[in-house]
Amino acid sequence: STIQKQRQELQLLIAELKDRDKELNDMVAVHQRELLAWEDDRQKRLTLAERCNLLNNELSKRNDIIKSLTKRLKFLESQQNDSRATFEYTQQKFKELSQKVTDATVHCQALKEKNRSLHCSVLELSAKTGQLQAREQELLTMLKLKDEVILETTDHIIEFTSKFRKLESALRTAKKEEFSLNEEKEDLKLRLKELRLETNKLKDDFCEKIKENNKQQEEIIHLRQENGCLRSELTLIVEKSKRKDQLLQFARSKQARTDTELSSLRQIYVKQQHDLQFLHVNLESSQELRQ
Question: For residue 58, how many other CB atoms are within 10 A of its CB?
Fold first, then answer.
């Protein structure tokens, strides 16, 4: 009867051990699943960390691009200010040259008027010379006709010849002055041509500066638009990184819960090991009693 009782107890213990073994197997399977889930979470966390590093690197690159674009924008603004200053200087130079051209044209007109007046005076002198020559012929005829008044008319002749010489010298000086005025007129014409060429060149430079200024303004507008797009992309990347940080915090909290559950399961597993050892000791003692 004792042996039967012990057999029944052993059978009960064996059944209980089988149940405990089944529970342990289930717990081990659950533990394996949790370990796989934990490994999966760890891999996800590593991938998220790598993506976070990549996003940080990309963020730093975008920051460098934004800094370079801002520097380029400042450089273009300074260049635009320089071009504006050059444009204003060119306008001032153009105004000065136009004023010089108008002054030269006025001077040329004055020289033309002076030339006309000198030409009129030359014509008057030539007319006077003709009159004097006619007078001289009259005097010669009078000398031929009146030999008596030769002495009286010689003085008049000498006087008229001196006047004629003076008129001739005045005519020569007038011709020389006319020649110098013609030379000055030609010089002024050449100077006027040079000023017109320089004015046309300044007009071409002015048009080129305007075109270059328009191109720089278009480039500045394009860079501003690109800067706005990069800023919007940067805000989206920052929002994505914030969301990923939140997901990482959620994963960390889940990992902490998993660790606590795993520690509790380990404690249960240790307790069950102690119970199994105790049952083995009881089984061995029962077997010894049986023997």
Answer: 14
The neighbour count for residue 143, using CB atoms within 10 Å, is 14
**Tokens 């997901």 -> residue:** 247
Strand ranges in the chain using DSSP code E only, listed in sequence order: none
pTM of the model: 0.31
Amino acid at 20: R
Q: How far is it, in rounded angstroms, from Cα 43 to Cα 262?
A: 18
The residues, any chain, with a CB within 8 Å of residue 115's CB and separated by 6 or more, are 178, 181, 182, 185
**Which among 42, 39, 60 is positioned nearest to 50, based on CA atoms?**
42
- Are 218 and 76 in contact by the 8 Å Cβ rule? The answer is no
pLDDT higher than 80, residue 135 = no
152: region left, alpha or beta (phi > 0 left; psi from -120 to 50 alpha): alpha
Confidence of residue 149 (pLDDT cuts 50, 70, 90): low
- SS3 helix, strand, coil % of the chain, rounded to 5? 100, 0, 0
**Residue 146, by phi and psi: left (phi above 0), alpha (psi -120 to 50) or beta?**
beta
What is the tens place of the pLDDT at every residue in 11-44?
Answer: 888 888 888 888 888 988 998 898 899 889 888 9
**At 50, is the secondary structure helix, strand, or coil?**
helix
Mean pLDDT across 198-202: 83
Asked if residues 285 and 9 have their Cβ atoms less than 8 Å apart, the reply is no
